[in-house]
Here is the input.
Amino acid sequence: MRTKTLTFRNRKGLLLSAKLELPAEGGAKEFVLFAHCFTCGKDLVATRNISRALSAQGFGVLRFDFTGLGKSEGEFADSHFAANVEDLIDAAAYLAEDYTAPSVLVGHSLGGAAAILAGAQLESVRGVVTIGTPASPEHVLHIFQDALPQLEAKGQAEVNIAGRSFTVGSDFVEAVRGKSLDDVVRKWGKALLVFHSPQDDIVGIENAAQIYQAALHPKSFVSLDGADHLLSKAKDSLYVGNVIASWVDRYIDQEVEAPEEEGHVVVSLAEPGFTCKVKSGPHRLIADEPKRVGGLDMGPAPYEFVGIGLGACTAMTIRMYTERKGWKVDEVNVHVDHTTEKDPNPPAPGKKERPVNVFNRQIEILGDLDDEQRTRILEIADRCPVHRTLEHTSIIRTEKFSS
Here is the structure.
C-alpha cells in the first residue's frame, strides 16, 4: 500500500486534509471515495482499516476530513450536513481532475446519508455503500437534543459528543430536518450495499430496513452481527472492506492486467505500526504482528506465513502423489507450529550460540488407506519443496530497488 497525504480546496476555498490509499504496485483499478461518520474524521481506525482492505484488493481510496474537522480548514460550527454533501462532490471533482473519478462512495453513519445524496449527483458513481446509516439525517439530532432550545434561540450551542466538545450552528439543524433518503434511493439507478449491526445502539437496525426497502434493485444487505456503531473491532472493519471489494467487482469494468512474473511479491508498510499490505500477482493479503508485541493482529505474522507455506506445500505434495497412485484421500489437514530450541550442535569457534527455528508439523489424512500407504505418504511429505528449502541454507540477495 502507498499512502499519500494531500489537500484539496472545496468550493468555499477551504483546504481539506486527505489521505489517498493506493495499491502497493501499479495503478488502481477503480477509485473509492469515503465519507466518515459524524464528528469522526479520516483517521478513525475503522475508516483506515476499510480503506486498507480496499487498497489491498487493488482499489484507490480517498478519505478526507469534512470542513471544520480533523486537519481540514473551517469551523465545525459553520459547517452542516449540506456542506458535507458539497465536500464529497468537491472531493470527487478533485479525484476526477488529478486521478480518476470515483465509481463508488462509501459512507459511515451520517456520512452514509451524505454519500447517498452526493452519489445521486455524480454520474461516475455506480455504487454506494452505507454503514450504520440513519434513514433520515435528522436522526443525528437526538445526540444533542438537550441543546436544541439554545441552538434555536442563539444560533449556536456547545454540545458534548463522545467526550469531545463541539460548537454546533443552527444551519446544521436546518440542513438535516425534513431530509429523507427514500425518494433518492428509489429513483437514482445506482447499486446499493447496506451494512448494519443488529446491536447498533446509536442508529437502530430499522434504519437499514427502511433504506433497503426504499431502494430498487440491485441492492444488497449485510448484517454486522456483534459489531458496534463505530466498528471499533478491527475484524469488523476489515471484514466490511473485504466484502465491499468483492461486491464492487460485480459493478465495475476491469481491464485484464498483464501477468506478473511468477513468485514476485511486494510488501508495503506505510502507516505507523506493523500492518503490511502484501501483493502476490492478483492476490492481496495482510501481514501483521500480534497485539502483545505492539501489532494490530490484522493478519498472520511473518513466521506464520512461513508455516502457511510449509503446510500448503505439504498438502499439495500429498495430493499430487496420492492422485498419481490412485489412492483414495478425502482430506489432508496439516498443522504447523513455530518454536525455537537450543541448537544441538556446538557453535563454531568464536561464534555465539544461537537458537534454531523448529517447525512442528502434524499431518492428518482422511481416507480409505492402509498403514503402509499412510507411512509412505508421510515419507513423501518430507519431499515437499518448501520442506527442503527450510532444511537447507538459502541465499538472500538485497539491493536497492530501481523503478
